[in-house]
Amino acid sequence: MIDIHCHVLPGLDDGPRSFEDALALIQEARTAGITQLVATPHSSTDRSSPRPEQIHAVLEQLNHMARARGISLPVLPGAEIMLDPDVGRFIDDGLLLPIGDARRYVLVEFPITCIPKYAYDALFDIVARGYVPVIAHPERYFAICEDPERLAAFIRSGALTQVDVGSLIGVYGSSACRCAARIIEHSMCHFIATDAHTAGFYEGVVTAALGRMEEQFGPDLLETLTVKNPQAALLGLDIEVPDPIPWPAERKESSLLGGWMARLKVPGMRKDPGRD
Predict the structure, then answer these.
(1) What's the rounded Cα separation, in Å, for the pair 28 and 37?
(2) Distance CA 234, CA 103 (A)
(3) Share of the chain above pLDDT 90, in %
């Protein structure tokens, strides 16, 4: 497995607190069969967010320490970027990092409780600048689970998606587990990644979840989502994107909050002809 979403850099976000903790996480990932790892600290346009020079400095030190201990797992640069209207400009200006050295695919996330009204404009801006936005863990957003056409619209307009491996076995609750399976079934998933933050995750979650994935969806799709597509992203190559399969909304399972969010309209990323 090539893991394009992992919080492994110490001291930059809610991942490991020390280099020793980070090295334990890398060693565990290597033992679990991870062949390449992308460090994706939480990042944003906020001034307090870690900037590329900080990320690269910590990454270089961590890779040096891993090599000194004989841990043969390369850790590549990246970020998990909170989407806002200025993200595209910050990426272009070199202030936010894409995934890996090819600098084409960009991992983005929404606030967990909603899809912002500016989402389609911000994603469109990223696409227009020549990048490919990858929406992190869509199965964990209430609004998408209750109305998956929102996700289909993003995909049709140029975005891809990454499902968290833990969602496949209920780490984030039964709703996210059901939604993850249906996103995969309906051809709306393009990457599976860990979103690991601490040691213990690879050993306790990843192996079991990948086994469940293979059992449910077969070895070929597992290979595509965990190796083939991630490798293409790291090389900056195109990824084959199947058309999303229609999936009716399931409002009957909505929470009060989720039901309110499901009524919000989020258009696709296609630019309105009437706009400048």
Answers:
(1) 12
(2) 8
(3) 83
